Amino acid sequence: MYSFLCKSFIMLIAIILAPSVIALDITSCYYKVVKVQENDVLTVRFGPATKYEKVGIIPYNGIKIRIMGDEIKINKSKWVPIQHKIIAGWVNLGFLKKDCETTRQNSPVFHVIKLGDTIFSLSRRYGYNIAEIANWNNLQPPYSIKEGQSLRVSPLVILNQSCLYQVINVDDDDMLWIRADVDPYAKRLGGIPHDATDVQIIGEIQKKDDMSWVPVKYKGITGWINQVFIKENCE
User: Fold this and answer.
1) Gyration radius from the chain CA atoms
2) How far apart are CA 204 and CA 202, in angstroms?
3) Last residue of a domain, which of 152, 184, 218?
4) Sign for the pseudo-dihedral over CA of 65, 70, 75, 78
5) Which end of the chain offers a freer environment for a tag, N or C, measured as fewer CB atoms within 10 Å?
6) Looking at the structure, do residues 13 and 97 belong to the same domain, yes or no?
7) What pLDDT digit, counting tens, does each position of 25-45 carry?
8) Nearest alpha carbon to residue 35 among 98, 102, 94
9) Structure confidence by residue, pLDDT tens digits, 178-223
10) Which domain holds residue 173?
11) Does 7 have pLDDT greater than 70?
């Protein structure tokens, strides 16, 4: 912890003292890795240049990267301070691309097992540790998997609970039904009008088959609705 705090402090000093700082449009969007080969990784460094020591790596298809400050121009390269999971440091901005779609992604990622895949190789590919992937899929040592099997390889995402949500994709003469379970045939607990704008999200999305279900609260009724029928209403 002491080492991490020291590095974070030095990284802040580097931002202040750097010779050429350029204001970056920092939004609520994540960033993703681009221009990195499948057999390679994006190196995270202690400072804004290749001369600094490596503090971590991000997979070639890494997502959900946060830019934590303004970019710094070093010679012809631009470097930015980032956070990816527990890794904090600097990367070359040329290997990042804004990824607002992932920011809005509300379902876990699944991987269909191919010949030669292992839990270890999946952990390297998707950037999560073996224990996390095993836990998401209820796997026990020695983590046996088989070709064609679908494994969840990312955590569930919680929708923005600071916003209310509005109903979409429902006909004027219909209702959005709140279900007792994550199933289109589960018992109806209540209905939400087609033009409702005050639906509250109360937990994590659950994936079943090809559908994503969201736990909601509306007018005192709690249950599940299909995610395709709501969108943020933060105005």
Assistant:
1) 22
2) 7
3) 152
4) positive
5) N
6) yes
7) 434 578 899 999 989 999 999
8) 94
9) 999 988 999 999 999 999 999 998 877 777 776 788 889 999 999 9
10) 164-233
11) no
